[in-house]
Write a structure and sequence with these properties.
CATH class of the largest domain in chain B: Mainly Beta
Distance between the termini of chain B: 66 Å
CATH topology of the largest domain in chain B: Methylamine Dehydrogenase, Chain H
Strand order of the largest sheet of chain B: 34-41-40-36-37
Strand content of chain B: 35-45%
Radius of gyration of chain B: 26 Å
Oligomer: heterodimer
Shape of chain B: elongated
Number of strands of chain A: 11
Shape of chain A: elongated
Number of helices of chain B: 1
Largest sheet of chain B: 5 strands, mixed
Radius of gyration of chain A: 22 Å
Distance between the termini of chain A: 49 Å
CATH architecture of the largest domain in chain A: 3-Layer(aba) Sandwich
Number of domains of chain A: 3
CATH class of the largest domain in chain A: Alpha Beta
Largest sheet of chain A: 9 strands, mixed
Helix content of chain A: 40-55%
Largest interface: A-B, 59 and 69 residues
Helix content of chain B: under 10%
Structural class of chain B: mainly beta
Order of helices and strands of chain A: HHHHHEHEEHEHEHEHEHEHEHHHHEE
Chain lengths: ~350, ~550
């Protein structure tokens, strides 16, 4: 099938089963199949309208950038096992990333420092063990998961809620570029040029779940898209893991509800690896404990972020010395920092 | 029947004119943000032609697809130029032309980026060259002005023309004339063909950033507190309008009105006859960072706090304000830029920079935290798209059609930490960081309540909201027990965030004071978190 026909089929946003019937009927046709498709009696008026307005310009531009269609034959095992798997995908980057063991990490866009640090930590550890991290490319937990995987030199797949060329959120343009350049890929079940939309994010969440052997929910408030991914994963028979937080943290209410509903509480990436039957990667030899000002700073830090001013106040170190020590500790991977301040890396 | 036909013709004409004259018309989501690592801040504005956006950043010139921000070409393709581009890209006769600080003006094919010619000036260039008819005019630091041919980059004049009093401000162009200012407060309209002054005009004063703005047949210029309108052909005064304030940069004009901004960020709007259109000046809350520009029916004024402010000249309202944030650790990757004087690349470690004193807490070495990125030059509109070049080398495109904003603002509780056990007595402060990178925060929608009781707050353009608990004000001390704080805020596209946080109040505890630096090595009185993140390791 030609990319043009592929684009047309995905533009129609057909239900999976109907799409497959049409796909079978069209067979290995070229662009001439487009006319047949446009006038097919199975299409509803809305589907026909969507098909009629499909965007060839966006497709051409995307193909030039290196975007390519991916059919059922190239689907990884977990995606093949989903009865409602999409009729086709567009991928930008190294699609082979999806053919390794996959774990999805999902959570809220408005994540806390703790949530983002945990997301990064889990993604790093899993990626180091050869797992591909799947997430939605969104702000917060998703971004931290993608970054964590790349920081470990691993692979990551971002599943987008619009066309694979319609990068959303726009501020993640750099992150997406890094994902593509570092053995990962962007993938979407929507036609090139498709604008992201709320309902498309829900569809995207299903694909996140279906592409993964397990799903980890890091931080999900009561109303979170991450919960829909978790529920879909559960329906697909994938194991759902949840990282907890303290009970006063309202950002985790949805996560805690999942645990109440039977999801597995997890507090270390090794639990996931063990569930997937994978060996944890041998970790690098631990760094020697810091001494002097570094040790002073580590003594007062916890997993709750602390402002620099408080660190300076409590350690008595001059600001410039505290700053340079904090930078070194961060480079060593002992602490993390965010807008809330510095915290011990969980 | 005739009425019907007239109506349908009218509708077609209306639709056509709407299509042809589509203009940027208000808050819009970020469609894309492109960024290029650079050690030297760019200057100037983006240029747009035929669906391509051009910008000269660092050591290269770039052409980007207007719809997606994807790069079409870069010049040079392999080794960058020795020097840095420091000008707006000029588009003429299929060429994209930009000047660098290595005395060189480069012209490339606007479609392919292939080099067509380059010209090395006898002396370093003075600020930006201008396009005057078929010539590129430029000043040089040896106090001379020169023109070269657009077609081949060859000198149009035998020798440069001396400007004995030296240049002031920036050059501009009116039809085939180069307009420049001198240190003797003189404005000269120099013909590129005769190489003689068409006219000169002397002012009592001119600012260091003086630049003429041209619109139609007229030229507008700022002299001290006044905006002067002149006829471009002969320099005759059309009007003068006094703001009684110290104006800065170039004015902006759109045919119906002229807008000028003062050094301290007050905006004045005058009609084409010089009469004020807005009774009270518009306070931007920050100094301007570049000249304002006319954008459809609106004006855009960039300010040093990183905001781009869309101003409705009819009502005097700030119709939209968007804060350009540094590319953060979770978002960036391609661009650990380090524009002049800024240390650190990413978001800082401290809780925010809400300090009342500017520069507070920015005392230590490497302790400057970048909270926002000012625009490098005026904003530019092309149809429905608004384009702004940031000092960090990023190019932002806002567009209602191309952009999507489905994400509500993010709200973080910075102080105390959510879940903390604290005293509810003064001087307790609740501090929140509120951000929305897609379309910006609509400050009018912000509401903060504690257990359903609305609280007074201060909200700065840096995105920090502070609720001060006081025995005297509206925000009374909090009683013992668990308190739920709800922050409700929308972005300009109407996405609303309802963020809830809990605190446990125990009034037997010592009252909580917000952290301040005890460092005494300099700096201001200590903004909250203003001086963190010297290393900025997260920036790239």
């Amino acid at each position: 099938m030609t990319p043009l026909l592929w684009q047309a089929l995905l533009s129609a946003e057909l239900p999976a089963r109907k799409g497959r019937v049409l796909l079978k009927e069209l067979g290995p046709s070229g662009d001439e199949g487009l006319d047949k498709l446009k006038h097919h009696s199975m299409l509803t008026p809305k589907e026909r309208a969507r098909l009629a307005s499909f965007d060839t310009k966006a497709l051409d531009a995307a193909l030039k950038l290196g975007v390519r269609p991916v059919g059922f034959g190239e689907y990884p095992e977990p995606l093949r096992a989903w009865p409602d798997n999409p009729i086709g995908l567009f991928a930008w980057g190294d699609w082979s990333a999806a053919h390794h063991p996959t774990v999805a990490i999902v959570g809220t866009r408005g994540a806390s420092t703790y949530g983002k640090a945990v997301s990064e930590k889990f993604a790093e550890a899993l990626a180091r063990a050869g797992v591909t991290i799947v997430s939605g490319g969104a702000l917060g937990i998703d971004a931290a998961a993608h970054k964590g995987a790349m920081a470990a030199g691993g692979r990551t797949v971002a599943v987008l809620g619009g066309g694979v060329d319609r990068l959303y959120p726009a501020v993640h343009r750099g992150l997406f570029q890094q994902i593509r350049e570092k053995k990962g890929c962007l993938v979407s079940q929507f036609a090139c040029g498709t604008k992201p939309d709320y309902y498309r994010f829900l569809i995207r969440n299903q694909l996140v779940a279906a592409l993964s052997q397990a799903v980890i929910v890091i931080e999900a408030p009561e109303r979170s898209g991450a919960l829909s991914t978790a529920h879909r994963a559960n329906e697909l028979g994938r194991q759902v893991f949840v990282v907890p937080a303290n009970i006063d943290n309202l950002g985790f209410r949805g996560s805690h509800a999942l645990i109440r509903d039977g999801a597995t509480l997890v507090d270390h990436p090794d639990h996931i690896l063990s569930a997937l039957g994978l060996e944890p990667a041998v970790e690098a030899a631990p760094l020697p404990p810091p001494s002097g000002p570094g040790a002073q700073i580590l003594d007062i830090l916890t997993t709750t972020p602390l402002a620099v001013e408080l660190i300076v106040e409590r350690t008595g170190l001059p600001t410039h010395e505290a700053m340079s020590e904090l930078t070194l500790l961060e480079i060593d991977g002992r602490i993390i920092h965010d807008s809330g301040g510095y915290a011990i890396k969980p | 029947m005739r009425i019907m036909r007239t109506l349908s013709v009218g509708l077609v004409a209306l639709a056509l004119s709407a299509f042809v004259h589509a203009d940027f018309d208000g808050p819009a989501p970020l469609a894309w943000r492109w960024i290029q690592p650079t050690n030297i801040s760019p200057s100037g504005k983006p240029a747009v032609q035929d669906g391509t956006v051009y910008a000269a950043v660092g050591q290269r010139m770039y052409a980007l697809d207007k719809e997606t921000g994807n790069q079409k070409w870069k010049f040079p393709l392999v080794d960058p130029i020795e020097g840095n581009f420091k000008s707006t890209v000029m588009l003429v006769d299929g060429l994209a032309i930009a000047a660098a600080d290595n005395k060189t003006i480069y012209a490339v094919d606007a479609k392919t980026g292939e080099m067509k010619w380059s010209y090395v000036a006898p002396a370093p260039l003075f600020k930006e060259p201008v396009l005057a008819g078929k010539f590129i005019g430029f000043g040089m630091t040896d106090n001379s002005v020169m023109a070269i041919n657009v077609a081949d980059g060859q000198p149009a004049w035998k020798t440069p023309i001396k400007v004995f009093d030296g240049f002031l401000g920036k050059l501009s162009a009116f039809q085939g004339d180069i307009i420049y200012f001198t240190n003797a407060y003189e404005m000269v309209s120099l013909s590129t063909t005769t190489q003689k002054a068409n006219w000169t005009k002397r002012f009592s004063t001119l600012g260091p950033d003086a630049q003429a703005t041209t619109f139609g047949d007229n030229i507008f210029v700022i002299t001290g507190p006044e905006v002067i309108g002149l006829t471009g052909a002969n320099g005759r005064k059309i009007f003068e309008a006094n703001s009684n304030d110290t104006l800065d940069f170039a004015p902006a004009a759109n045919g119906d009105s002229v807008l000028a901004v003062s050094q301290d960020g007050k905006v004045y709007v005058f009609g084409s006859n010089g009469r004020p259109l807005v009774r009270k000046e518009i306070d931007l809350g920050s100094q301007p960072s570049a000249s304002p520009s006319a954008v459809g029916k609106y004006y855009v004024v960039p300010t040093r706090n990183g905001a781009i402010n869309l101003i409705d000249p009819k009502t005097g309202d700030i119709s939209w304000s968007y804060l350009i944030r540094p590319i953060g650790s979770g978002t960036a990757s391609t661009a650990p830029t380090n524009p002049g004087g800024r240390n650190g690349g990413g978001p800082g470690a401290g809780p925010g920079g809400a300090g009342p004193g500017r520069g507070g807490g920015q005392s230590g070495a490497n302790a400057t935290k970048v909270l926002a990125i000012p625009a490098a030059g005026p904003a530019v509109a092309d149809g429905d798209t608004l384009l702004v070049l940031g000092l960090d080398g990023s190019l932002l495109a806002f567009d209602k059609q191309l952009g999507v904003d489905l994400t509500p603002p993010s709200v973080q509780m910075m102080w105390p930490n959510a879940g903390d056990l604290v005293s509810g007595q003064p001087p307790l402060e609740l501090i929140f960081k509120i951000e929305d990178e897609a379309s910006g925060i609509n400050t009018k929608t912000l509401k903060i309540d504690v257990d359903g009781t609305d609280m007074d707050y201060e909200f700065g353009r840096d995105g920090i909201a502070v609720v001060r608990i006081s025995s005297l004000g509206k925000n009374k001390p909090l009683f013992d027990g668990r308190k739920t704080i709800t922050v409700t805020v929308s972005d300009w596209m109407g996405n609303t965030s309802h963020a809830t946080f809990q605190l446990v109040i125990d009034n037997t505890l010592k009252p909580t004071t917000r952290p301040t630096s005890n460092d005494k090595t300099g700096g201001g009185p200590g903004g909250f978190g203003g001086g963190s993140n010297g290393g900025g390791s997260a920036g790239g």
